[in-house]
Amino acid sequence: MASLLFSANAFAASEEKLDHDNSILSVFVQPSISFISFEERKYFQEAIDTIYYGFRAEAVTSAETLNVAKQDFQKVNFCFPITAGIQWQFMEDQFLSAGIGFIYDNESVVLTDRRSGTHSYEYTLQGIPLFLEYRLALPKNFITLSTGGLFSIAVRWYWVLPGTEIYTTWGYLGAETPLLGAGFGVSVGYLFASWKNFKLYGDIGFNSISVKSDKKFSDIVPNGPEEKAKWNLGGIQLQIRGSFGFWNKPEPKDDEDDDDDDDGDKKPKVKFIDDTKKDSVKVDSVNVAAQDSAKIDTSVVRDTSAVQDSAGIADSRKTAVQDSTAAQDSAKIDTSVMKASVGTAPENAPKNAPAPQDAPKKSADPANVKSKGD
Fold first, then answer.
1. How far is 49 from 247, CA to CA, in rounded Å?
2. Would you say the pTM of this structure is higher than 0.70?
3. CA distances in angstroms from 52 to 113, 114, 119, 130, listed in the order given
């Protein structure tokens, strides 16, 4: 059993624990360990003691007395019931199950008489219980462990089917099958392993399956009580339920697909930081900053060019003004030169050269005019 639990834990170690059991219909098999509350075992032990003391009384010699020996029945009825059934999840975390089980517990002893002859005596408890079960799963947000899955609480109601009986070396005793049932059970379960649609629950609880018969214990054991027989097939029980869901709810969507959900039903999204994206974002920001600075520098250059162009235009205007002023000055100089050239004849000019027409004629100076008489 310990190896089974270890293998189951190892089996589920790599799997993420479930928040809910998503199966709608599933089948299950449930092996158990049961400590049956069968108090009537004392009748069989008393019968064995009576037979043993009878063998001792028959012994004649001490050697024959030494040959007489006995075994005692176990003080605890320990067995391994097995159950199978079907489970329906009619609401989230609420399950109804129907199942049938088989209980078998055989107890036997051997007695030796004074002549070393062996005698075997036994009794067998057999039960076929039918049950309905209601199971409530407790989600992880309600009760959980650090490495835990789902806890559950289950209640059952039992009936017994034909085949529930006690048969012994001395006789047979069949149980009645009342329609109202034969007992109840409660247990606490824990989902400790899951893989896809397969799940393993561990349960511990107590069952009480009380049955009775029209016969008496004196019919199946020497010196037994004369009243109608009653006994119990329940007790403390440990069980492991393996279930397989053949009809399951759709897998829950990721948080990214739940944008249309109400704010109260939304789960906080976890953002994963990628360092490579950080670096790329930094590089992109640097590139953008560089582009922006380049744009600024270009605009500044353009503005500077515009200023230089305007300054150039102003300089060209100044130059044009200076050129026009220089032209006027040169024109004045040329006029003065022309005037100077007109007023004074060159020395090497011919004497009989006609005077220029545009040269002004000298007016007759009366002081320079000499009379003919002079």
1. 57
2. no
3. 8, 10, 10, 40
Is residue 173 within 8 Å of residue 217, measured between CB atoms?
yes
Report which of 99, 113, 121, 106 is spatially closest to residue 26, judged by C-alpha positions. Answer: 99
Separation CA 330–CA 220 (nearest Å): 159
Q: Which pLDDT tens digit goes with each residue over 285-302?
A: 545 444 555 454 444 435
Residue whose C-alpha is closest to residue 125's, from 74, 184, 83, 187: 74
Chain segment 35-59, per-residue pLDDT in tens:
999 999 999 999 999 999 999 999 9
d(CA 354, CA 30): 154
Contact 30, 83 (CB under 8 A): yes
- 283-318: b (≥16 Cβ within 10 Å) or e: eeeeeeeeeeeeeeeeeeeeeeeeeeeeeeeeeeee
Sequence length of the chain is 374
